[in-house]
Design a protein that fits this description.
heterodimer, A: alpha/beta, FAD/NAD(P)-binding domain, eight-stranded mixed sheet, 20 strands, 39% helix, 19% strand, B: alpha+beta, Gyrase A, domain 2, Elongation Factor Tu (Ef-tu), domain 3, six-stranded mixed sheet, six-stranded antiparallel beta barrel, 8 helices, 19 strands, globular, binds flavin-adenine dinucleotide
């Protein structure tokens, strides 16, 4: 194979791993430098109490894009690395709703709502599909478009107009910039159903259901559903990263863990390598950052190498996380009235109605954590018994909203918030508190420190419309290349954002190779 | 100093009581939020004070910023296009700064105040941009516009006047030097700088000492030694064009105020290529300027003189008489001392070259009757006015 050049990737997050493999396959000598002990970043498994392991941040996976699975040779295991699950929206009176990709069922649900759900999902998945050309390509530049940009816009236009048809397109344009609260009220009566969908629209964002553009964040989430139902990965999300690391290494990628990068070396406006915290310097033809935009530009590069307004734009991006992660080691399986053991193994939501979700968000607006948070709960040890000692269980909870900037500071409040979550779960699962052997809470501040993500943000930065597409992470660095020649972004900070998708990594690699080829 | 009364639209400089007393015509203009004299008695007498004796201009409204902290030099290096790493304590230098696109935001001067950091002076408010540029740097930026009162004393007898006023230490002061001295027990900082292209000094004091400074200078006149006259913005406008100094906002749109895409200007387009240094570390706009520099230049702000006796106010410029339109006059004056029409003009370059022959179509009024003449123009590579006395050290005494 001809050697295309050398590349350093800062961070072995799943996106860094995907990007690395593409580049290695194209002939680059790729070295990944990861700060943590393990690969995966947000997609890693952690032992938080002896014998209890759990997905550290991301715990529920949408199947990876089939193109990426195929091109990287991830195999059947990569296509489906665990158990497919549904979502169950919990109800205090035991009248839980089960939401699958296309149908919903549960006590007290009207036929009309059940049918509306199928129609709604069909319609909104079509919108998500229509937006796909935007997803798997660099976001087109509006000035000085190249051919790829023109093709992306043409495909998008085609899919919107002819893929959707006239009536759907009109409807898409009507709801696209709207908020999910209004839209769901048009479709459904059932409060539980609306609460569950609204929670999906805002989880990970600084948004409530009534926030404008919460339809777009919902569509973004639905994109994952295009490739199948959600998955609870065996061995935790770290196994997904291990699969990616496996193909990377087979493609010749060198992965070094416990190698935190201190700074990106810039010589004559060009990235020429990195310096590790240990002092070691490594040179490379190109440097690719899996870290978020603030970390990359403001800390690893440094403002003195950047234009002032560009640095200012990066500085002003909104990157404050809103989700805390809680992990529980449990003596035995929690009991929730009306749920079988198999049902306990699904994705459980505490989002009983839209006002509940909106109210939970209201607290975040004023620098407080939700009095009654929205919870996304999984008990992965049901499907994969290796995660906990025999007969015992682990529970993984994403709790919203827990804003990064808490008025009274997290130092004082972490325990209180964890207690609140425990009490809330106990409302549904009586006796829950007594089952806990050990617990762990990661607030956005902890996530920032441990996972090296500014603000501990789910998406490495808000997915608001002003920080999306050709403005992600900021105008001037939205096509994976940056103002520093030879420096690229490949992580969730770049288009199309966060979640375990591998798409930013894929797009970045594609862009790097196209630029190399002079395209 | 008393705080500015918010009910007054314009604030008054600490010199105002004296300026007001000497103002015969009470014609004021706003400048940077201050009530500033346009003219005191007649333009001619003020103009000739600058060129023939000694003039005093209240430059307190000038935006002043103090930059201190361990990263001060890193900050300034990233801010301005010029290499200022060699600027020594007690020296001043002229600088410009650009936005990301390499378009000029403003120009000004940097004073190296030794252990007290740096002072940046600019005609327009720049605090926002300075703070934006300070991101990630360990610097403190404080606006001191209202905390420092300043007079510009310019003209061939300025040195003699200041000496007679009791200000010592000017004899060996070279252009762009700074000296800290005393007058009647208060501190005066003097820099040999100015906006007139002539011998002259700028004096910087605590606002509480402002009137004492004014009185000491004008006391020289009262004692019958030398003539000293206050001058306003209009006389300054004449001499700065003679000296070839540009005024952001008048001669070109600053990048901050430009709305349309091609209305802002790069340093190269303003003839300020000499303050752009590509060999220094990164500065805002460098990437854009490197790209621009590799292409033929599109246009230039030039110093232009026109024949005839009609200053070419607001005129269009043509490539040859009746030729293609290739530019406009930005500012123009009749120069009494050079007996010539002088202007700042923007000229389109064709394939990186300036037109061979430039003509101005000049409209003028005679007893309310409009007339038009064509006059040939000449680009001047050097300042129109640059007498040896401007740089002579020690300065000539009178
Ligand atoms: C609480 C929470 C719950 C979530 N739940 C889900 C979920 O259920 N499903 C889902 O799909 N997504 C979920 N996400 C989002 C998902 O985790 C992220 O969007 C995703 O991990 C981003 O992947 P990435 O590869 O771009 O970056 P990351 O996973 O953040 O990886 C970046 C890597 O770079 C490394 N790094 C950073 N700086 C340096 C440096 N200076 N030197 C060396 N290495 C460095 C980091 O250590 C890290 O390993 C969740 C996020 C949070 C915060």
């Amino acid at each position: 194979m001809t050697r295309s050049g050398s590349a350093i990737i800062i961070g072995a997050g799943h996106n860094g791993l995907v990007c690395a493999t593409y580049l290695a396959k194209a002939g680059y000598a790729v070295q990944i430098l990861e700060a943590r002990e393990v690969v995966g970043g947000g997609a890693s498994t952690r032992e938080f109490a002896e014998g209890f392991r759990v997905s550290g941040l991301a715990h529920v996976l949408h199947p990876l894009n089939p193109k990426i699975v195929k091109e990287l040779g991830l195999g059947a295991k990569g296509a489906k690395p665990g158990t497919a699950i549904d979502t169950i929206s919990l109800d205090r009176d035991g009248r839980h709703l089960t939401l699958s990709t296309d149908s919903v069922s549960g006590a007290g649900l009207s036929d009309a709502d059940a049918q509306a759900y199928s129609a709604f999902k069909r319609e909104f998945r079509r919108y998500a599909k229509a937006l796909e050309p935007m997803t798997m390509n660099k976001p087109p530049r509006l000035k000085d478009m190249d051919n790829t940009d023109k093709l992306t816009l043409a495909k998008l236009g085609w899919k919107l107009r002819f893929g959707l048809g006239k009536i759907s397109m009109r409807e898409f344009l009507r709801v696209g910039g709207s908020n999910i609260y209004d839209v769901l009220n048009e479709f459904f009566e059932d409060q539980r159903l609306k609460g569950a969908i609204a929670a999906d629209a805002v989880i990970g964002h600084h948004m409530g259901p009534r926030t404008p553009t919460s339809v777009l964040t919902y569509l973004q989430r639905l994109r994952g559903e295009l490739y199948g139902a959600e998955i609870l990965p065996s061995g935790g999300m770290g196994e997904v990263a291990n699969i990616l690391a496996g193909v990377a290494e087979r493609a010749g990628v060198k992965i070094r863990t416990e190698a935190p990068v201190q700074r990106i070396v810039v010589t004559d406006h060009k990235a020429t390598g990195v310096q590790l915290q240990s002092g070691e310097s490594i040179e490379a033809d190109i440097v690719i950052s899996n870290a978020d935009a603030k970390a990359t530009f403001l800390h690893l590069v440094g403002t003195e190498y950047l234009d002032a307004m560009f640095a200012h734009r990066v500085h002003k991006t909104r990157t404050e996380g809103t989700v805390a992660k809680l992990h529980f080691a449990l003596k035995d399986l929690p009991r929730i009235e009306g749920l079988s053991e198999a049902q306990l193994g699904q994705r459980l939501l505490v989002a009983p109605d839209m006002r509940y979700v909106e109210h939970a968000f209201n607290h975040a607006k004023y620098g407080r954590y939700s009095d009654a948070p929205v919870l996304e709960i999984t008990i992965p040890s049901l499907a994969d018994t290796s995660l906990a000692p025999a007969g015992q269980h682990v529970m993984s909870v994403s709790a919203s909203f827990a804003p990064y900037s808490l008025k009274e500071g997290w130092d004082k409040s972490t325990g209180d918030f964890a207690d609140k979550v425990v009490a809330l779960i106990a409302d549904y699962a009586p006796g829950f508190a007594a089952q806990i052997i050990a617990r762990e809470i990661l607030t956005p501040v902890d996530i920032e420190r441990e996972y090296k993500v500014t603000g501990g943000h789910w998406h490495h930065g808000e997915m608001s419309i002003g920080q999306s597409f050709m403005m992600r992470p900021v105008h001037g660095a939205a096509q994976y290349d940056t103002p520093i020649e030879g420096l690229f972004l490949c992580g969730a900070a770049a288009h199309p954002g966060g979640g375990i998708t591998g798409i930013p990594g894929h797009n970045a690699a594609k862009r790097i190779l196209a630029m190399k080829a002079g395209r | 100093m008393e705080k500015h009364d918010f009910r007054e639209v314009l604030q008054r400089s600490p010199f105002f009581p004296r300026a007001d007393a000497l103002s015969q015509v009470k014609v004021w203009s706003p400048w940077n939020g201050y009530q500033t004299a346009r003219i005191y008695d007649t333009l001619a007498s003020e103009y000739f004070a600058i060129r023939s004796s000694c003039s005093v201009f209240d430059m307190t409204p000038m935006g002043k910023y103090r930059i201190t902290g361990p990263d001060a030099i890193r900050f300034l290096t990233r801010l301005v296009t010029r290499d200022i790493s060699k600027l020594k304590p007690g020296r001043v230098t002229y600088v410009v700064w650009c936005n990301d696109e390499g378009q000029v935001l403003d120009d000004g001067t940097i004073f190296h105040l030794g252990d007290d950091g740096y002072r940046l002076c600019a005609q327009h408010n720049q605090l926002d941009w300075l703070l934006i540029s300070a991101l990630g740097m360990d610097v403190t930026i404080e606006e001191e516009t209202h905390e420092v009162a300043a007079l510009s004393v310019q003209g061939p007898t300025s040195y003699s006047v200041l000496e007679a006023a009791g200000i010592d230490g000017l004899q060996e002061l070279k252009p762009f030097d700074i000296v800290n001295t005393f007058l009647d027990g208060f501190d005066v900082m003097v820099s040999r700088t100015g906006f007139t292209g002539d011998l002259g000094y700028e004096l910087w004091v605590d606002p509480n000492d402002a009137l004492a400074l004014w009185d000491a200078i004008f006391g020289v006149k009262a004692r019958g030694l030398y003539d000293v006259r206050p001058i306003g913005l209009e006389a300054l406008e004449m001499v700065r064009i003679e000296a070839g100094f540009i005024v952001p906002g008048d001669d070109f749109n600053t990048a901050e105020t430009a709305v349309r895409a091609d209305r802002s200007r790069s340093p190269f387009e303003l003839g300020l290529g000499w303050v752009v240094n590509f060999d220094k570390p990164y500065f805002t706009g460098k990437r854009a300027l490197l790209e621009e520099h590799a292409r033929p230049i599109k246009r230039r702000l030039v110093k232009l003189s026109t024949e005839g006796n009609k200053p070419p106010h607001d005129s269009f410029l043509y490539d040859g008489k009746n030729g293609q339109r290739i530019g406009t006059i930005k500012t123009a004056i009749w120069s009494p001392i050079l007996k010539s029409n002088l202007a700042m003009a923007e000229v389109e370059y064709i394939k990186g070259k300036r037109p061979a022959e430039i003509w101005a179509q000049i409209y003028y009024q005679k007893e309310l009757e409009w007339k038009v003449v064509w006059e040939r123009c000449e680009i001047s590579g050097k300042p129109f006015w640059n007498p040896p006395r401007r740089n002579a050290t020690p300065p000539e005494p009178f």
